[in-house]
């Protein structure tokens, strides 16, 4: 295990004036927000409710030598026409730290320090990972650049959409600063402002066509379910129903604003997160995961999947895809040797080494796994670049989705009312 170094800049220059936060303190600050949200949920969960280089790999066709106009050249031009008419890739994402690409760092003015971002970007980017999160792999597969956070104004390019996800966020209204309803309000503002620019003859980030053809993604509910899991189980059904009702409301507002393609993630196997499985007491399954927290996650996912079924009926001319992230992520633990993972509950950034690298009372990256290590968890809560890449590949495949639709086919195909299992 390599020793961690928390010195150095964040890749954005060495000037002073920002909040320079070392790894132990930055997690205390950011994860404290999650803890507060959990406390609020446990005690009062019943609170009321375009284009920049889409990089479609269109491969340029060389001009024929001389004045030749062969039939083969004409055929190539005909083949290119449908692809040239394909609208640009536009994505809008709503979520928490699982898909935050730097939003909470921008909103809080936190300059997250190395070793964050070390594997892919080579510098911290505001992601709570050593590299990419799942949505980054989605963007890469669709040949578009990473989705910029809504509040990261400097250097952002919103021509391919916006990421509204913020670490610590909840679906529950008012339980966090950037709960789902706030993210939806931000989207509505962004849309109205964009279209207003076009109406004034100026160039906005996303056109009317872009909004109509965009994919609307949600990956939220993890913080809510950790809160629910720490309340009496006889209250779960009511509380989970209230959380899902917030997602229903959000989908309805997006639909009224033109959304027709939805990609919805269930929660992962929260009881298998090292910060939960290793730290918390209670019944553990044969793979070391905390049973009660996983049960809460599965109960939420069942209601969320049922919601997607209902919304396919009520929201006409839509495609709504629900993806079972619990099955994907639990599979990494239960079948870890299949993926070359030696210690499925070990963190990369921790202390003490295998099997958990989570010595009590120690913080930061005293023992840091090698960049090429096949370790799922970065810090006990968030995935490594390696883990996110595995999860993204399976999620995009459609194998764990209802209906069985690949991400690429949904993005590149037209919207339609889709049913089936």
From TrEMBL:
Asked if the keyword Transcription regulation belongs to this entry, the reply reads no
Q: Where is the composition biased (Low complexity)?
A: 63-72
Q: Membrane-spanning residues where? A: 25-45
What superkingdom heads the lineage? Eukaryota
Q: State if Repeat is listed as a keyword.
A: no
- One annotated GO molecular function: hydrolase activity, acting on ester bonds
**Chain spans, region Disordered:** 63-86
Q: Which Pfam families does its entry note?
A: Lipase_GDSL
InterPro entries (UniProt xref): GDSL, SGNH_hydro_sf
Spell out the Basic and acidic residues composition-biased ranges.
Answer: 73-86
Keywords (alphabetical) are: Glycoprotein, Membrane, Transmembrane, Transmembrane helix
What name is this protein filed under?
GDSL esterase/lipase LIP-4
Similarity comment: family membership: Belongs to the 'GDSL' lipolytic enzyme family.
């Amino acid at each position: 295990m390599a020793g961690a170094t928390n010195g150095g800049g964040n890749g954005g220059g060495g000037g002073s004036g920002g909040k320079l936060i070392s790894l132990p303190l930055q997690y205390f600050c950011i994860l404290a927000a999650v803890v507060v949200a959990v406390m609020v949920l446990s005690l009062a969960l019943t609170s009321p409710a375009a284009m920049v280089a889409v990089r479609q790999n269109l491969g340029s066709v060389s001009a024929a030598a001389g004045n030749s106009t062969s039939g083969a050249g004409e055929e190539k031009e005909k083949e290119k026409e449908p692809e040239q008419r394909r609208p640009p890739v536009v994505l809008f994402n709503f979520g928490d730290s699982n898909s935050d690409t730097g939003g909470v760092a921008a909103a809080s003015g936190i300059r997250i320090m190395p070793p964050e971002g070390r594997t892919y970007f080579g510098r911290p980017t505001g992601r709570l990972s050593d590299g990419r999160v799942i949505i980054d792999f989605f963007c890469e597969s669709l040949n578009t650049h990473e989705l910029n956070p809504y509040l990261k104004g400097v250097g952002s390019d919103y021509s391919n959409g916006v990421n509204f996800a913020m670490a610590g966020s909840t679906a529950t209204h008012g339980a966090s600063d950037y709960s789902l309803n706030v993210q939806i309000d931000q989207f509505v503002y962004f849309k109205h402002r964009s279209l207003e620019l076009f109406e004034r003859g100026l160039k906005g980030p996303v056109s009317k066509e872009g909004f109509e053809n965009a994919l609307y993604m949600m990956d939220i509910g993890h913080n809510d379910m950790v809160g629910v899991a720490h309340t009496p189980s006889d209250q779960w059904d009511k509380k989970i129903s209230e959380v899902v009702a917030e997602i229903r409301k959000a989908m309805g507002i997006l639909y009224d604003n033109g959304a027709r393609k939805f990609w919805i993630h269930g929660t992962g196997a929260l009881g298998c997160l090292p910060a939960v499985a290793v730290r918390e007491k209670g019944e553990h399954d044969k793979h070391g995961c905390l049973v009660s927290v996983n049960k809460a996650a599965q109960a939420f996912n069942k209601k969320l999947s049922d919601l997607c079924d209902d919304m396919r009926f009520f929201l006409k001319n839509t495609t709504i895809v629900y993806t079972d992230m619990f099955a994907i992520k639990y599979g990494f633990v239960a079948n870890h040797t299949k993926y070359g993972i030696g210690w499925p509950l070990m963190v990369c950034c921790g202390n003490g080494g295998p099997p958990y690298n989570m010595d009590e009372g120690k913080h930061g990256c005293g023992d840091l796994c090698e960049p090429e290590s096949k370790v799922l968890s970065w810090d006990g809560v968030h995935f490594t670049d390696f883990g996110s890449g595995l999860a993204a590949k399976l999620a995009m495949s459609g194998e764990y989705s209802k209906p069985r639709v690949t991400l690429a086919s949904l993005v590149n195909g037209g919207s339609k009312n889709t049913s089936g299992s």
